[in-house]
TrEMBL record:
<protein>
    <submittedName>
        <fullName>3-oxoacyl-[acyl-carrier protein] reductase</fullName>
    </submittedName>
</protein>
<dbReference type="InterPro" id="IPR002347">
    <property type="entry name" value="SDR_fam"/>
</dbReference>
<dbReference type="InterPro" id="IPR050259">
    <property type="entry name" value="SDR"/>
</dbReference>
<dbReference type="Pfam" id="PF13561">
    <property type="entry name" value="adh_short_C2"/>
</dbReference>
<comment type="similarity">
    <text>Belongs to the short-chain dehydrogenases/reductases (SDR) family.</text>
</comment>
<dbReference type="InterPro" id="IPR036291">
    <property type="entry name" value="NAD(P)-bd_dom_sf"/>
</dbReference>
Length: 248
């Protein structure tokens, strides 16, 4: 299926590894002109060389730096059509073990950085009458994960922002969606579930019985970025091997 995005200008945040890198690869395969970012110049340059993309350095833990990444892509390429919002998640911890002071850093990286990237990208998309924003959040916004209190909290807020934004810009040809990854084979998942027993317990709640391949999540992201997905907006779609058990 031709997704109709050949030549479209794309920014993929945190595109050097994991789900972000898989999304960048999927968009490159569809002919998009992709720019990735990472916090380390060496890693970003190396990933970009392998993927065939442009690259920039940005510390996505800082909302202003996250917005700056988007502005820099627009300036370098004369605009932006596709934005994949992504970033490093907060560390693990229960509510009881997490201090109030820890929440601000989590909100900066997993809520306010999302807001900053969208505020930087969407005005130009609205002016041109076409745009796609797809945010990678977490299944934890629907079904909170144990021991991830900061992520569950911050990303739930991001989901509320994204759905509000989607309503405001739909009539301008701009769609805003999010994907909610479950357990995928990424460095973050391997870190959070480093203990084999903890990983086995987590996988027991996944009907597919395995970790997801990042490319499987990226395929949905690419579709939501496509011309064909123009009537899909305001959604939050689980990609989780059946782990989400709610009816709605």
């Amino acid at each position: 299926m031709d997704l109709g995005i050949r030549g479209r200008r794309a920014a993929v945040a945190a595109g050097t590894a994991g789900l972000g890198r898989a999304c960048a690869a999927a968009l490159v395969a569809e002919g998009a002109e992709v720019t990735i970012c990472g916090s380390d110049a060496g890693r970003a340059e190396a990933a970009a060389a392998e993927l065939g993309t442009d690259w920039l350095v940005a510390d996505l833990r800082d909302p202003e730096a996250a917005a700056g990444f988007v502005r820099d892509v627009e300036a370098r390429h004369g605009g932006l059509d596709l934005l994949v919002v992504n970033g490093p998640g907060p560390g693990p911890g229960t509510v009881a073990d997490t201090a109030l002071a820890d929440y601000q850093a989590a909100l900066d990286r997993s809520l306010l950085a999302v807001v900053g990237m969208c505020l930087a990208a969407v005005p130009g998309m609205r002016e041109r009458g076409w745009g796609r924003v797809v945010a990678i959040t977490s299944l934890g916004v629907r079904q909170p994960y144990p021991n991830l209190a900061l992520s569950n909290t911050a990303r739930a807020g991001a989901t509320g922002f994204l759905r509000t934004l989607a309503r405001e810009v739909a009539a301008d040809g701009v769609t805003v969606n999010s994907v909610l990854p479950g357990l995928h084979d990424t460095d973050r998942v391997r870190s959070v579930y480093a203990d084999p027993d903890a990983r086995a317990a987590a996988l027991a709640g996944v009907p597919a019985g395995r970790l997801g391949d990042p490319a499987e999540c990226a395929a949905l992201v690419a579709f939501l970025c496509s011309e064909r997905a123009g009537f899909v907006t305001g959604t939050a779609v689980p990609v989780d091997g059946g782990a989400y058990q709610g009816l709605l």
